[in-house]
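Hi C.,

You asked whether I'd gotten around to modeling the 201-residue construct. I have! Everything is below, sequence then structure, no commentary in between.
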Amino acid sequence: MAKIHPQTPYPQSPFTTSKQETFTIWMKSLILSGKGCTVFDSSGHIVYRVDNYNSKCSNQVCLMDSAGKVLFTIQRKKFKLVKLWEGYRIFNGTSKDEGRNPAFQVRKSLRILRADSICEIIIWLDQDQPCQYYQIETCPDNSTFKIVDKLGGLIAEVKRKQSRCGISLGEDVLTMVVEPHVDHSLVMGLVVVYSLINSKM
């Protein structure tokens, strides 16, 4: 499970629409022998890419659009007992904030008594608005997870993609459904971090 929260002043995202959006995530990079993923919209066009040239589970990756423009730089921060990832939104080739404040943080913490872990996510969107709290709910095999708000309202869902006949495709082909008025580039940034935490990228 995971939590989310917001803060920094950003303009209205061009990645937000008034209708539900469906994407296909192929957990493969377009770069030969590279690590990452490629994301297609419902029309089959590439909309997002992650090309990790170094190795699997790198300490820094970039979420890009189809043209290779960086949208988020995602970095792993090392602490003693906590796995922490920070995502920096990029505008015109640079971070929006002079102080390099992250657009979101994802923290994985162990729950010793329950023998499992949770991911706490903080998102800074607009300093004039109160923080929002979300959760990531996962199934036991981590193949399906949902991002929900504090009232249980669905924000986005990722699961194995199925053919029109109802047959599940390979484990590296996923469907991501994002609800209306939600920044799907931000959701994709969280999906990238979730994949890194679970060693799937």
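If it helps when you're writing up: The mean pLDDT is 80.

Thanks,
B.
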